[in-house]
Specification:
five-stranded mixed beta sheet; alpha/beta
């Protein structure tokens, strides 16, 4: 069918089937969800890099995105050497309802 699949683990639980990491093309979590599924405390882009590499190495995740709130999003594409941080723009949020869904 040639579609890209994204799995956003929200809300996160520590014990999920391993296939849920490896089947989607993109595995996306926020920093607290990444901490839950990896056991690595994620509070910075450096922590996100460690957690993303863990998800790739231990759980066979393909593309990994870890959202970090005001710090942006850490992206580990296929090929570890091309990882990057996407900065976010500062905004005056009026209502954050659905913000995660619109990512």
């Amino acid at each position: 069918h040639k579609v890209t699949s994204i799995f956003n683990l929200a809300p996160a639980v520590a014990d999920i089937e391993d296939d849920l990491f490896s089947l989607p093309d993109i595995f996306c979590v926020n920093e607290s969800e990444a901490s839950i599924v990896t056991g690595i405390t994620v509070t910075s882009p450096e922590d996100a890099a460690k957690a993303a590499k863990f998800l790739r190495r231990e759980k066979s995740a393909k593309i990994v995105i870890i959202t970090l709130g005001e710090q942006g999003s850490y992206v580990l594409p296929l090929g570890d050497e091309n990882a990057f941080l996407v900065p976010c723009e500062k905004v005056d949020a009026v209502d954050a309802s659905g913000a995660g869904d619109s990512f």
